[in-house]
Specification:
Blueprint: H1 9-17, H2 23-36, H3 39-47, H4 50-59, H5 67-84, H6 93-112, H7 122-138, H8 148-158, H9 162-173, H10 204-224, H11 230-240, H12 248-255, H13 259-280
Helix pairs in contact: 2-3, 4-5, 4-6, 5-6, 7-8, 7-9, 8-9, 11-13, 12-13
Length: 289
């Protein structure tokens, strides 16, 4: 038997040579595995259906992922099907396992097909795996772009928005581009696409200017605090100048006064600070008040 690309020839040969199971034998193996935990029965049951995994993997190989990885993921789905299969329902194991194998492979494709993650809802999955087929049916003569009517028809068919169809079509139509890829070939500059991204951060001169302004305002505030009495200064510091402000009740308990009295002193102290700042720095004090 010829080797499927990237898959061990002996493995494929063994999977294809595994005997088909009659319904009665399949039911017996499933009951032995589910009821008695018979590992040999489970191995025989799954081995007989590995050809199903390989066949389904070849259907998904056009997504550009290694066939061996698809088969491995499909085998995981096959084992999951064996663990969940209920012989009493009298459904053929191949029918039940097909759903789990396909789901496992599709999840793997969605995780690894692109560096850009797409939606994981059932509608988004259906759009991803059916867009190519629907696109070929709705476009004529190999048109590169779909019409708005085609977008609308696909959106209605799958149950997503037209914008979702357009976005998925753009993803499937073009490859991923790394930001670390060079801008041009053989130009010797070493420039990368990342170098063309705009920097939305604060400019260096603005950073320096903000630092200078911050230092200046801090000095103004320290100067104005000198007009407060010792008790006013303590209340303002513990209520306004620390990361975790003290409550009126807690501060009143420390000072031996009521929380209403603390509030009155705080308001009076803030008014004194405001007047001191306006008197000493009338043009720049607005940023602090």
């Amino acid at each position: 038997m010829s080797e499927i690309a990237g898959v061990d020839r002996n493995f494929v040969k063994a999977a294809m040579a595994a005997p088909f199971l009659e319904r009665e034998e399949e039911q017996d193996l499933a009951q032995r595995w589910r009821g008695l935990g018979d590992q040999a029965a489970m191995h025989k049951l799954t081995s007989a259906h590995m050809r199903l995994v390989i066949a389904m993997a070849t259907r998904f190989r056009h997504y550009g992922l290694p066939l061996a990885d698809l088969i491995q993921e499909g085998h995981v789905g096959l084992l999951e099907a064996a663990a969940r299969f209920e012989p009493a329902r009298e459904v053929r194991f191949s029918t039940y396992a097909t759903w789990w194998i396909r789901a496992s492979m599709q999840d793997y494709i969605l995780r690894n097909w692109s560096i850009v993650r797409g939606g994981t809802s059932s509608a988004q999955k259906a759009l991803f795996f059916n867009l190519r087929r629907l696109r070929a049916r709705l476009t004529r003569g190999g048109e590169e772009r779909m019409s708005d009517a085609a977008y609308g028809a696909i959106a209605a068919r799958i149950g997503v928005s037209r914008a979702d169809v357009a976005s998925m079509d753009a993803r499937l139509s073009g490859p991923d581009l790394s930001l670390n890829a060079p801008i041009g070939e053989d130009d010797g500059s070493g420039a990368e696409r990342m170098d063309l991204l705009p920097d939305t951060g604060v400019l260096q001169d603005e950073t320096v200017g903000n630092g200078i302004d911050s230092d200046r305002r801090l000095a103004w505030l320290q100067d104005a605090l000198a007009v407060l009495s010792e008790r006013e200064l303590r209340i303002v510091r513990e209520r306004r100048l620390v990361e975790e402000a003290c409550t009126l009740d807690a501060l009143g308990h420390r000072l031996g006064i009521s929380k209403e009295r603390v509030r009155q002193i705080e308001n009076r102290a803030l008014e004194k600070l405001k007047r001191a700042l306006l008197d000493r720095h009338p043009q720049g004090a607005a940023a602090l008040i």
